[in-house]
Specification:
Layout lengths: L2 E8 L11 E8 L2 E6 L9 E4 L3 E5 L1 E6 L15 H8 L10 H17 L2 E6 L9 H14 L2 E8 L17 H8 L6 H15 L7 E7 L7 H14 L3 E5 L3 H11 L3 H7 L7 E5 L5 H9 L3 E4 L1 H6 L7 H7 L3 E3 L12 H11 L13 H15 L17 E5 L11 H7 L6 E6 L2 E5 L2 E2 L4 H25 L4 H12 L16
Parallel strand pairs: 1-4, 1-5, 6-7, 7-8, 8-9, 10-11, 11-12, 12-13
Antiparallel strand pairs: 1-2, 2-3, 5-14, 14-15, 15-16, 16-17
Length: 504
Amino acid sequence: MAIVIRDAEVITMDVRTGSTPVTRSIRIEDGVVAELGATVRVQDGDTVVNGRDRLVCPGFVNAHTHSWEYLAKGRYDNLPLELWMLYSYPILGGKPLPPDLVRLRSLLFAVESVRSGVTTLVDDVLETPSQDFAQLDAVFDAYDAVGVRANISGHVINRPFIDTVPYAAEWLPSDVVDQVRATPLLSAADYLDFSQEAFRRYAGRADGRLRYMLAPSGPQRCTDDLLAGATELALAHDAECHVHVLETKTQAVTGREFYGTTLVEHLRRIGALSANTTLAHGIWTTDSDIATLAEYDVCVSHNPVSNLKLGSGIAPWRRYHDAGVTLGLGSDGCSSSDTPRLPEVLKAAALLHKVTEPDHTAWSTADEVLRAATLGGARSARLHTDIGSLEPGKKADLLVYDLNTLAFTPRNRLDLQLVYSENGSSLRQVMVGGEIVVDDGRVTTVDEEALLAELRDRLPGIQAEQDRVESRNTVFHEAFERMYRTCAAEDVGVHRWSGPPGAS
């Protein structure tokens, strides 16, 4: 049985019409767009949906997020990344989260995501102090239940955290330094073996809707053999290799201090760049870095809301576009942006880059933003042959908006209103692989109220543990504050942010 959506306004994001809405009908068979045109076949037994007064577009791809931060939503403010990480990614005292709580956390994250129009998640999952298969199984199980599409990582840091930033270790008490450096860490071989098993374990999960990806945390946080090995393994499995690079000015200083060059150039030298590589953030890149990323066909996931909240800086949007670097859009984690909802990210991306230069012809456009939220994210996730646009042969991952709402009143340019006016309140249906996972604002696959009730019951214990861990990690704050201010005042030859007093 097929589903036919008749006479809707459709944003296809294909090469012909892009983000310009056109009146089209869509025939969906076996989870795939079978036909799309002015007219399509209708057969006995088909479910026919009246598309008049509806806008249909590809589902959004959240090209960089961390579901594991969901339980820390709304806990922190006015902390730059390196200080915020002391509490959200604790160096000391973290206890393994039980798989049932990982599953609950992931279910709630997926529910909030799909309700806002996200049909694909690039979820960079990290567990403290380390990840095991029981925890990773719980994430896959949750996403399978909700029906979302996802790349799900084993995130790894295999250097002592105090040795991933410059200066700080020399300003900490020696007993604290010794304790951190004595913490067991995975070797490159351990991580690559884990990832090989993950590829085997999750192959074909949910008919290919769920995939494992590699996620070495960053070039300053992982050994060279792990970075190069992860790149090679990703190519072997045509999987995404997801790496945090040049998110902050501190990381620009780190590259110079650790390697005598930029972090992008270091990755190139060790063989850790490929068409399967996605850089999360990529704010403090030089012109030479951008040329290198274009040469290797590397994608960048842009996270404007998180970058603003953490004061990290503004990514060079126009320079990336001019160089031909593919951009996706990400929400980042729920502790650094406090939401997994991508409509807020689209609007932020469309607005932020209008204040970076006076030449209005170089400002970000709604078409570019929608392209990043769909095709760009699909390309970065290595899913571009399956999703990102509405075309015959691609998966039926799509959104249906009601045009009889205030957000679309009066009806002018629907693509602009989708970016600037709509916040998710007009979203009526969300489809993933032809299956309706949201209908009239309600998730159809799981019991949202039961999930919320379970979290309410468990929250006092969760928050008590968060308080304990945060208190233990205040020992690092003074040294990291000094390190942050020292780096902020240094000249790295790139200006992406004014910074605190004394910063260049």
